[in-house]
Inverse folding.
């Protein structure tokens, strides 16, 4: 019983984290596409 509950909790946590990362990644791509690329290029130079 305990082990199955732990597995379910771990899977739920991972799913929530993945969903949050995907959601934020989409927003960032829409908003900061050009600014991010320019910042990386300038920093590398």
């Amino acid at each position: 019983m305990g082990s199955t509950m732990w597995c379910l909790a771990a899977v739920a946590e991972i799913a929530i984290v993945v969903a949050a990362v995907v959601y934020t990644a989409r927003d960032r791509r829409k908003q900061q596409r050009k600014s991010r690329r320019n910042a990386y290029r300038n920093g590398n130079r």
